[in-house]
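Researcher: Good morning. I'm working through a list of sequences from a screen, and I'd like to move beyond sequence-only analysis. For each chain I'm collecting a predicted structure so we can compare shapes side by side. This is the next one on the list. No need for commentary yet; just the structure.
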Amino acid sequence: MDPIEPFSAPRVSPAQAAPETICARPTLLAESTSVPLVPAPQLSVVYRFEGLDHVDAVYQRQADGFVYARDGHPNASALAARIAALEGAEAAAVCASGMAATAAVLLSELGSGDHIAFAEQLYGKTISLIDRELRRFGIEATGFDATRPDSLVAVLRDRTRLVMVETLSNPLLRLPDLPGLATIAKNAGAKLVVDHTFAPLLCRPLDLGASYVVHSGTKLIGGHSDLTLGLVAGSQEEMDRLRGIGSTFGLSGNPFESWLACRGLATLPLRSSRSCATALDLASRLSRSSAIRAVHYPGLPNHPDHDRARTVLQGGFGAIVTIDLGNRHRADAFIRNLRQIPFAPSLGDVATTLSHPATTSHRGQDPALLDRHGITPGLIRLSIGLEDPNDLAADLEQALAAVS
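Model: Good morning. Structure tokens for this chain:
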């Protein structure tokens, strides 16, 4: 095949075209010998080709290029390259949401008759996807306690293909023995999938034995509550397969939100460091309040996984602090008496927010499962932002005083 020359669209002088043509056809950007400091969002859905040899070369990866945004675009490629580098992975993929990223992994690896073992501490929607929706496709699922490796051993089967856990569980922030679980999964012929949404930068799950690491880019990576994306990192072979699945099922992320996520990544280390430091400070203060039944934070010495967190996590213990006020009435009173911290059912923003897991992230889940893992109606999950710690403490303290 002859070498593909750089594509250059013909220019039409306005004087040579009718008004309808001038309005309908896109104007090419002005040429420049200088390069933009900030890469621009490439919003085009479709790309032009010189001819059939050119489109063949792009599809066959003999020439660089894009065809259709669902299959890939420059902003997703840029974001994926940075996520792969951060996670120490061969490659990464960008999906439409954190749930889309999880679904892409499951669809890539599982088929009728297969089995997945999942941590019962997972995000509620993830449990719904695994334990309800996948069953319609003949895929079996069994829950286990991610903090007890022996409980994983007990549920493994000959057809177990995946084991899925979170780095820090939602919302009680339990930290499983990732290397131990990875070894158990590998010995059973399964792959470990780690949802790393709560702990970007704090460790590398792939280095600890995971095959896939999944992020909701909507949260800490995006950092500003203005985008919805999911991210997956793993081997080149796995990501090639996953991108194909993502295109076929319509799970791909869009250009503008990929561009926003790249912007968010620029400040992620600074935001993570600040939020982790403030979270530890506030968790320590809250642990001394008589109005709170329990404070869940892996940086506190009384947390059941504190020793493991000190070894595995680097640069902090995370931006999430969860408190238990005892019952729904007290939780509601606390929320209503806060003056600055809003009830907003997400996390990872530059501003501090809170959520109520029983009515949001874990709504509709099996009451027995929630009770077994301590997800009570009195539980409040705080996502710590960049504000002054004393200002946050003052708001929390006055709300707790009102509850008391």
